Amino acid sequence: QVQVVESGGGSVQPGGALRLSCVVSGGTFGNYAMAWFRQVPAKEREFVAGISWTGVSMSYADPVKGRFTISRDNAKNTVYLQMNSLKPEDTAVYYCNAHIRSRIVIPETKQPEKYNNWGQGTRVTVSA
Description:
Helix content is about 0%, strand content about 45%. The protein contains no helices and ten strands. It has strands spanning about 5, 10, 20-25, 35-40, 45-50, 60, 70-75, 80-85, 90-100, 120-125. The strands form two sheets. A six-stranded mixed beta sheet has the order 2-10-9-4-5-6, with no helix packed on it.
């Protein structure tokens, strides 16, 4: 069973940057597309970014395009989310997950309801 542990969250001012990390265990990391999601209270979890198994192909939600970058290190079983030019509306708990049914980012990769197991997430707060 694949397990994930997210880290790197914190509090920053608008315009600041953070780098989130997600370590994956219990599976074959290099075989999976990976995705980041975020959630704020009273709202559904939403897709943020996804990356293919090779790290060559990425996909981003419109609100983060040009500001966030997803990457992965298959030797370390780790996926990253570099977040630049942060805005107050980026405030959320961020989660990662492994899309074990696909090596590339497909529509299902972006659907949080398709995942069964979640980590504890890492909280990001952007405020002046």
